[in-house]
Amino acid sequence: MGLLSDHRVVVTGVGDIGGVVAATIAEHGADVEVWDRDQDALDALGMASRCVDVTDADAVAAAVNDCFSTDTLTGLVTSAGVLSMAPVVDLDPVDWRRVIDVNLTGTFLCCQAGARRMLSEEPPAVGRSIVTFSSIGGLRGEPDIAHYSASKFGVIGFTQSLARELGPSGIRVNSVCPGAVDSRMNTEIIEVYATDEGVDPGEVEQTIVDSTPLGRLSTPDDVAGTVVYLLSDLAKFVTSEAIAITGGLVF
Ligand SMILES: NC(=O)c1ccc[n+]([C@@H]2O[C@H](COP(=O)([O-])OP(=O)(O)OC[C@H]3O[C@@H](n4cnc5c(N)ncnc54)[C@H](O)[C@@H]3O)[C@@H](O)[C@H]2O)c1
Questions:
Q1: DSSP tag of 218
Q2: Is-above-0.85 flag for pTM?
Q3: Which domains does the chain have, with CATH numbers?
Q4: How far apart are the C-alpha atoms of 4 and 29, rounded to whole Å?
């Protein structure tokens, strides 16, 4: 029996972190369906999948209703997200709206549809849990990512409200806040900061590592472990939390 046996979980966004998260959830015994707007990324992962744009309310609602059609939905993980970087004075409102639309509105649409379905179903034998993706950028603002940070602070507030609404029905809702994860997204951030500071990207990365008590960047696997815990009944009395997965990064 795996930790997530009898769980049926949708994971959105199968990039560097979400793909590992989905595979790890499956390794722990859950049935998993992954959603992304990028069909090639879905094909590369080789899991049960569906091409869904999380900003499309009708597509999200249809996908939530279709998935695991003969059984209950027990879990939802909203990892689909985008990053762009610019100081506020240069930030194009189009970019602001795109980042808020995917990261915050996309999270809302998936959670709304998922919650509606869960509330319409008989509670399954295992606990139900929603995990949203915030970021260390949802716990503190940094230069050049005001729009990303605003979206990720928003995810935490949204998550806390939803946890209060769904708690009486026994559905838990928590956020994860990854720090500097060894990934393409983090490489982009490090390269922009290196350019801003006129230093080598390796120096920026070393500064992050030196500020991290556990002494390294985090990995997608570090994030996956926390998501598995939050989906599982080990976390049966944990809701409304925003859990930092940063190796203790000092800020
Ligand atoms: N990588 C990091 O260092 C880091 C740190 C903190 C938080 N995060 C957050 O973790 C999550 C996953 O990050 P990642 O590194 O895997 O990112 P990634 O860019 O590798 O993957 C994101 C995935 O989301 C998908 N996506 C984007 N817009 C979509 C849409 N409208 N509909 C459906 N799918 C869409 C992309 O196609 C991609 O596959 C994101 O929410 C990100 O903000 C990442």
A1: B
A2: yes
A3: 8-178+218-245 (3.40.50.720)
A4: 5
Tokens of 14: 């199968």
Residue type at 220 in one-letter notation? P
Nearest-CA neighbor of 20 among 31, 11, 8, 29?
Answer: 11
Q: Compute CA distances 104 → 107, 108, 163, whole Å.
A: 5, 6, 16
Whether 6 lines ligand 1, by a CB cut-off of 6 Å, is: no
Closest by CA to 72, choosing from 122, 35, 34, is: 122
Q: Whose CA is nearest to atom 36 of ligand 1?
A: 13
Helices (H), the chain: 18-27, 39-45, 57-66, 93-100, 106-120, 146-166, 184-197, 201-210, 220-231
Which of 148, 158, 193, 229 does the annotation list as catalytic? 148
Location of structure tokens 């995917």: 102
In the residue annotation, 193 being an active-site residue is answered as no
Q: Is the CB of 153 under 6 A from ligand 1?
A: no
> pLDDT of 74-89, one tens digit each?
999 999 999 999 999 9
